[in-house]
Amino acid sequence: MAKNRICVTIIFLFHLVGLIGFTIPSLAVLFIALVPWHLLLMLGVVIYSHDVFNGRFMLFAVIIFIAGFMAEYIGVHTGWLFGNYSYGATLGTRLLDIPLMIGVNWFLLIYATGVFLRRSRHFNNKLARILTGALVLTLLDMLIEPIAIHFDYWHWLGGAVPLQNYVCWFALSALLLFIFEQFKFKRQSIVAPALLIAQFVFFAVLNLMY
């Protein structure tokens, strides 16, 4: 469909432009300031591409946003989940010291991964999809962490990323993917999986350059 081609083009084009902007020192400050707007654009593209935009889909989005936001709140204010960390300025407006965009990011990652695995012919078992998806998102977090620290997304007390972070990322991802599975969305287009692929490429390339 033309709609899906346009959405995929927007996803890869904006990730490519962002990649260029992040790697040119004179542009980096501008592109860092645009990170929240980039996430909102990706949110708009994903919502637009969803086959049936209705109350059920909105309920799912709200649940994932709130669950992701609350997990980060617990993490930042207690250190019980991910370890001891705090957010920088890059992700924009914060509520209770947590960027609102982190809830958006959790929604995008869970939805994209869930759709990707539901489209695969190799994962017909729900538990296999949940565990594989959690592993995929944990691997993505391993790519994100060095870049997030470098560009002031967040910072860890002591500098090093604790193993606890990855364990909790896996567990929270599995829980949120379990919720995704309960909604039994019909097979979606390639748009959301394209976003997941773009994220992997984006952060992998930045890791090679920094």
What descriptive keywords fit this protein?
210 residues, two-stranded antiparallel ribbon, mainly alpha
Descriptive report:
The termini are far apart. β2 and β3 form a beta hairpin. This protein has eight helices and four strands; from the N terminus they run ααααβββααβαα. With 210 residues, it is mainly α. Strands 1-4 form a two-stranded antiparallel ribbon. It has a two-stranded antiparallel sheet with strand order 2-3. The mean pLDDT is 95.
Quote the beta fraction. Answer: under 5%
What structural category do the secondary elements indicate?
A: mainly alpha
Shape: globular
DSSP strand count: 4
Strand order across the biggest sheet? Answer: 1-4
What oligomerization state is this entry in? single chain
Please specify the SSE layout and strand pairing.
Elements: H1 2-23, H2 25-33, H3 35-49, H4 55-78, E1 85-87, E2 94-95, E3 98-99, H5 100-119, H6 126-150, E4 154-156, H7 163-183, H8 191-209
Antiparallel strand pairs: 1-4, 2-3
What is shown here, in short?
The chain is about 75% helix and about 5% strand. It is mainly alpha-helical and about 210 residues long.
